[in-house]
Amino acid sequence: MAQGCWSSLPADLVNRVADCLLVTNDLDYYMDLRATSHDVRFHPTRWIVLDELSGESDTRFLSRRLPLLRDYHFVTSSTGGFLVLADREPPHAARVLNAFTGSLTRFKAPMPSEMHMAAEVVGPSPTLVVLSTWGTLSADNLKFFLADPGSERFFDVGLGSSSAVSRTDDALPEFLYPVASALLVLCGVAVDLGGPGGEMLRVDRFPEQGVRLFRMNSEGRAMERVHSIGSHALFLGTFRSMSIHADVFPSVNANCIYYKKVEEEEDGSSHTYEYDLAHDKEEKIAEVNI
């Protein structure tokens, strides 16, 4: 059926067809169905775990009831539709659940105990790649962890200030560099300027020195300091970042980075700052009392 015909069908009918495909595990057909409709996103992204589902669902969101989750600790979700779990009993071994099919992959290695995590599942083995952080998103607080199902532990991969990804014992496998870069973007440690020739920039935050940007090459190894992002402006959140075209917003200056910073020496208030890349200058532009 042509794309226009699918788009003209009532949403409840499209949902019923999609549900039938999921029940029979016809994931290829399900993805083809999503691609024909303007009302749904082409690729499902991250899962959101809710204790209870309220409200009516629509074609933009896929809802799944997973009683199996009660037997595990939920850790995070991957961009590919996998749920990363940990056993409730020590040593809290890692598990990867395919929420579409119900398939569960068991890992021998215990899950790392860091606080904030993003993850991706790569290859047929599969390899579980976890990016974790303690506290603020600085290079010193970021670590990659890698494990295969048969691994006794997760291998620690540190982030250095002079390279995008550096392995303490041996080189990071080449096929994991794009995954590492994607996880950095997901956690707000890197930002994609977008577009066909969009650059991937590493974001380093310094409490006393503002923000520094580094250009990441395709292998994710060597990095070069960036002093201009042209007409773009960056907005940095606690665990997310975004790039916009400043000329669309009159109150936003191009080649600048916006973020909030807590003033510990004062009263712990969080203020909004603008960092001018061209002049390497940080300026407080708004005060927020907490």
Q: Mean of the pLDDT scores?
A: 74
Instruction: Briefly note the structural class of the backbone.
Output: mainly beta
Task: Give the helix proportion (percent range).
Answer: 10-25%
Largest sheet: 5 strands, antiparallel
Tally of distinct domains: 3
**How many H/I helical runs?**
4
Spatial gap, N to C terminus: 56 Å
- SSE order in H/E notation? HHHEEEEEEEEEHEEEEEEEEE
Radius of gyration: 21 Å
Beta-strand proportion? 35-45%
How would you describe the oligomerization state of the chains in this entry? single chain
- Number of beta-strand segments: 18
Give the overall shape: globular
Protein name: KIB1-4 beta-propeller domain-containing protein
Pfam families: Beta-prop_KIB1-4
Describe this structure in words.
By secondary structure, the protein is mainly β. The protein has three domains: 1-40 and 57-63; 64-188, no CATH class; 189-290, no CATH class. Helices cover 13% and strands 36% of the residues. It is built from four helices and 18 strands. It has helices at residues 3-8, 11-23, 27-36, 177-186, and strands at residues 72-77, 82-87, 93-98, 104-110, 116-122, 127-133, 142-147, 155-158, 166-167, 190-192, 200-206, 210-216, 223-226, 232-236, 241-245, 256-262, 270-276, 281-288. Strands 5-6-7-8-9 form a five-stranded antiparallel β-sheet, covered by helices on one side. Strands 15-14-16-17-18 form a five-stranded mixed β-sheet, with no helix packed on it. Strands 1-2-3-4 form a four-stranded antiparallel β-sheet, with no helix packed on it. Strand 12 and strand 13 (223-226) form a beta hairpin. This is KIB1-4 beta-propeller domain-containing protein. Residues 193-267 form the KIB1-4 beta-propeller domain. It holds the Pfam family Beta-prop_KIB1-4. InterPro entries: KIB1-4_b-propeller. It comes from Panicum hallii.
